[in-house]
Specification:
Helices cover about 35% and strands about 25% of the residues. The strands form four sheets. It has a six-stranded antiparallel β-sheet, sandwiched between helices. Strands 4-3-11 form a three-stranded mixed β-sheet, with no helix packed on it. A two-stranded antiparallel ribbon has the order 1-2. The chain is built from eight helices and 13 strands. The radius of gyration is 24 Å and the shape is globular. It is α+β, with helices and mostly antiparallel strands and about 350 residues long. About 20% of the residues are buried. β1 and β2 form a beta hairpin. The protein has three domains: about 5-65, Winged helix-like DNA-binding domain superfamily/Winged helix DNA-binding domain (Arc Repressor Mutant, subunit A, Orthogonal Bundle); about 75-220, Chorismate lyase (3-Layer(aba) Sandwich); about 220-340, no CATH class.
């Protein structure tokens, strides 16, 4: 028999999918829903948390819970964001400031150097989709408030011309400010991209800090492999691919082929593994508290078991991936994946 929170989540999920609650519509208040389902407010919030985790419901603090509009994904490809069609709407705010914190090192300028910040927030309909903070030396700042596309065109036309664009990609949890601006949970990982553009004179002309929520953005990197005869090689899990700490469509395993352990996706995978291991340690600490509390109810124990199962699956995937990379060259790689990962 399903728990009360799962039964409530199933009923609300069905009402959303059948159109009883439409995209963008505000759900009844938590008090009203708790009364309707004859449960406590914590149980009702636990049910809503399941729907929020699935991306069906969005909680806006101070306003309520809303049926989330389907998210459109876009792919970040080597310095160019391929936007959905129709394109996302972006708002921009410019601020003149002095280089402080990490900015002097990022733009290679003395502290307190005059800069201009352009804060872009892209929206899909009324919902925020992603954000970017772009910093440029004050003497290169645009007089107007250009769109992201206009900023890219402006970079391409700069004189002296660009010689290098360096991009650093990582995965992390959002800051409270980012969580509020993007209306996402603080537990939803984001792609954090730092892009620095330098001209042929060695001057940094732009530094961009871009935040892409993990549930609506992909980063695409392509490695083309050829044999001595110039034909493509087929890669399999047993000939040097890294098992990545996430799954693709239909929950299929993902692999990375690269000869650069410090590349974009390698660093992204490293950061994601660290987050998964840290969350597993937190679940373990929480488990010790729950198991030593004689007042813990069966529902809380079932929820704990679910969280621990997920954390254990992530940990086993990390162990499998790292174990393969530590295996000596003469040791044959296993062809099969452990059943719990396949």
């Amino acid at each position: 028999m399903p728990s009360r929170r799962h039964a409530i989540a199933d009923d609300l999920r069905q009402q959303i999918r059948t159109g009883h609650f439409k995209a963008g519509e505000r759900l009844p208040s938590e008090a009203q829903l708790a009364t309707r389902y004859t449960v406590s407010t914590p149980t009702l919030r636990s049910a809503l948390a399941l729907l929020q985790g699935e991306g069906l419901v969005e909680k806006i603090h101070g306003s309520g819970n809303y049926v989330r509009r389907p998210l459109r994904r876009f792919t970040y490809v080597g310095g160019i964001g391929t936007s959905p069609i129709p394109p996302l709407r972006a708002t921009v705010r410019t601020t003149n400031l002095e280089a402080h914190g990490d900015l002097p090192a990022l733009l290679n300028v003395p502290p307190l150097s005059p800069l201009t910040e352009l804060l872009y927030v892209s929206h899909d309909g009324k919902a925020p989709h992603s954000l970017a903070r772009i910093y440029v030396p004050r003497d290169l700042a645009p007089a107007d408030c250009p769109s992201p596309e206009q900023m890219r065109a402006r970079l391409a036309d700069l004189r002296p011309p660009l010689s290098e664009i360096q991009e650093r990609l990582g995965a992390r949890l959002p800051t409270q400010e980012e969580s509020t601006a993007l209306r996402i949970s603080t537990s939803l990982p984001v792609l954090s991209l730092t892009r620095v553009a330098t001209n042929i004179a060695g001057r940094v002309v732009e530094a961009a800090l871009i935040v892409l929520p993990g549930d609506r953005a992909d980063a695409l990197f392509t490695t083309r492999l050829t044999t001595d005869e110039g034909t493509s090689t087929e890669m399999t899990p047993s000939n040097g691919l890294r098992l990545l700490p996430w799954t693709g469509p239909d929950n299929k395993l993902c692999y990375l082929s690269t000869d650069d352990p410090a590349g974009y996706l390698s660093r992204l995978a490293d950061n994601t593994e660290e987050i998964q291991l840290e969350m597993g340690a937190e679940f373990l600490d929480h488990a010790l508290e729950v198991l030593t509390d004689t007042a813990s109810d069966p529902e809380e124990l079932r929820l704990l078991a679910t969280d621990l199962s997920s954390a254990l699956r992530d940990t086993l995937r990390v162990a499998t991936s790292r174990g393969r990379r530590l295996r000596s060259p003469g040791h044959p790689a296993r062809e099969e994946l452990p059943p719990h990962l396949s």
